[in-house]
């Protein structure tokens, strides 16, 4: 592909946040987006037209898959100015996936204000975000390493960092060690800045760190159909609770209610990834929920994970506060993603679903902040009043 074609493709896909590196051997070493597969055209069944345009999200995803962005162009993250080797390290982190961490951190900080904290400590916010992103990035490179040495990655894989020798296994090991070390340093900084007792901070942090490693490292929970449960816990309840607790100085359970929608959407992104890779994972001897359910079952599970949070938002808007209806504005995008699945365009779904989760988190945070400023929209009154006992983490009805 010429540089002119590549430049043109980037203008059409500015909402997509992924990029594939190119190696030293021309087209043979070109890598597509972090969420594409093989030749970057997703597998399409015999009953599905080769090119389907079901909406902007699906159209842009398929455009990106067919145009194969090279390592020198990065519309989403501005990696182009970086030296070539540094770009390869940056791409190995799969930065498109970081939205799954940014949303929970923002939500946890917003909930801290709901808990009565008058003003957020921006230093704690920054240190929390760096800590979570470091552990997330380290988990990504651990996944790259173990998928490669266990034979899951090949020339048709979405992540060919090691297959195409863009980096060596030793480079990936060093990168993971640096990220875990950096995460420990920022967690240590939080120990000095945060009012949260050290034992509680350590419990939450090392719970996240060990989970990011065990997903593919050690026993490899991903390979025995337990990775889905692990991700459901990490990128929702644990991340939100960590962000909330380092601000407020105490642990409680009520933030977990608000973390559930983000956890479900992040799990939907992972499930879409596993459904796309089901055939190759099965050949390599792996076992995921997508393999167990098959194509039809995987589709229905994705729909459940994608749409069930909106039922919660609709209930909250009518029973708690009208401002909590804001995340419902993303429902049309969710329907477009569902149509992408039905049309066989699975290649872009993981990244697109993660972006949906970030949008939901942003609107949920906005709704929570507006709830304080617009008490007239609060529905918690009368015989149907819902009493949230914040410090006891209980919900009672009267």
TrEMBL record:
Annotated pathway: Cofactor biosynthesis; ubiquinone biosynthesis; Quinol/quinone metabolism; menaquinone biosynthesis
GO biological process, one term: vitamin K biosynthetic process
Any one annotated GO CC term: Golgi membrane
Signal peptide: none
Intracellular or extracellular location(s): Membrane
Biased composition (Polar residues): 1-12, 24-37
CDD domains: PT_UbiA_UBIAD1
Biased composition (Basic and acidic residues): 48-57
Reaction equations catalysed: all-trans-decaprenyl diphosphate + 4-hydroxybenzoate = 4-hydroxy-3-(all-trans-decaprenyl)benzoate + diphosphate; menadiol + (2E,6E,10E)-geranylgeranyl diphosphate = menaquinol-4 + diphosphate
Transmembrane segments: 172-194, 223-244, 284-307, 313-335, 347-370
GO terms assigned for molecular function: 4-hydroxybenzoate polyprenyltransferase activity; antioxidant activity; nitric-oxide synthase activity
One protein family per Pfam: UbiA
Topological category with respect to the lipid bilayer: Multi-pass membrane protein
Region (Disordered): 1-69
Class of the enzyme per the UniProt entry, highest EC level: transferase
Keywords, ordered alphabetically: Membrane, Menaquinone biosynthesis, Prenyltransferase, Transferase, Transmembrane, Transmembrane helix, Ubiquinone biosynthesis
Enzyme Commission identifier(s): 2.5.1.39
Tree of life domain: Eukaryota
Family of this protein: Belongs to the UbiA prenyltransferase family.
Entry protein name: UbiA prenyltransferase domain-containing protein 1
Protein source organism: Eptatretus burgeri (Inshore hagfish)
């Amino acid at each position: 592909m010429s540089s002119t074609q590549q430049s043109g493709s980037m203008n059409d896909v500015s909402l997509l946040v992924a990029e594939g590196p190119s190696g030293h051997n021309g087209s043979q070493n070109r890598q597509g987006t972090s969420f594409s597969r093989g030749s970057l055209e997703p597998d399409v069944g015999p009953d599905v037209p080769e090119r389907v345009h079901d909406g902007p999200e699906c159209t842009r995803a398929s455009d990106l898959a067919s145009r194969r962005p090279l390592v020198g162009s990065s519309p989403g993250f501005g990696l182009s100015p970086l030296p070539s080797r540094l770009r390869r390290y940056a791409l190995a982190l799969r930065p498109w996936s970081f939205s799954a961490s940014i949303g929970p951190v923002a939500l946890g900080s917003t909930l801290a204000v709901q808990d009565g904290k008058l003003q957020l400590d921006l230093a704690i916010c920054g240190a929390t975000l760096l800590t979570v992103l470091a552990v997330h990035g380290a988990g990504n490179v651990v996944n790259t390493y173990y998928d490669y040495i266990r034979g899951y990655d090949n020339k048709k894989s979405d992540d060919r960092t090691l297959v195409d020798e863009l980096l060596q296994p030793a480079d990936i090991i060093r990168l993971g060690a640096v990220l875990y070390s950096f995460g420990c340093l920022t967690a240590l900084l939080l120990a000095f800045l945060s009012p949260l007792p050290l034992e509680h901070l350590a419990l939450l942090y090392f719970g996240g760190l060990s989970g990011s490693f065990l997903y593919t490292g050690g026993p490899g929970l991903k390979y025995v159909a337990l990775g889905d449960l692990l991700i459901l816990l990490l990128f929702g309840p644990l991340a939100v609770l960590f962000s909330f607790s380092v601000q407020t100085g105490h642990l409680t359970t009520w933030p977990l209610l608000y973390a559930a929608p983000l956890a479900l959407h992040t799990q939907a992104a992972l499930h879409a990834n596993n459904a796309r890779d089901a055939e190759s994972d099965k050949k390599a001897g792996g076992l995921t929920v997508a393999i167990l359910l098959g194509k039809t079952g995987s589709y229905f599970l994705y729909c459940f994970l994608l749409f069930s949070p909106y039922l919660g938002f609709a209930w909250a808007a009518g029973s708690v506060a009208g401002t909590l209806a804001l995340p419902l504005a993303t429902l049309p995008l969710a329907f477009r993603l569902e149509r992408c699945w039905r049309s066989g365009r699975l290649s872009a779904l993981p990244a697109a679903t993660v972006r949906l989760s970030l949008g939901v988190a942003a609107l949920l945070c906005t709704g929570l902040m507006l709830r304080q400023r617009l008490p007239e929209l609060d529905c918690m009154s009368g015989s149907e009043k819902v009493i949230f006992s914040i410090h006891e983490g209980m919900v009672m009805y009267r």
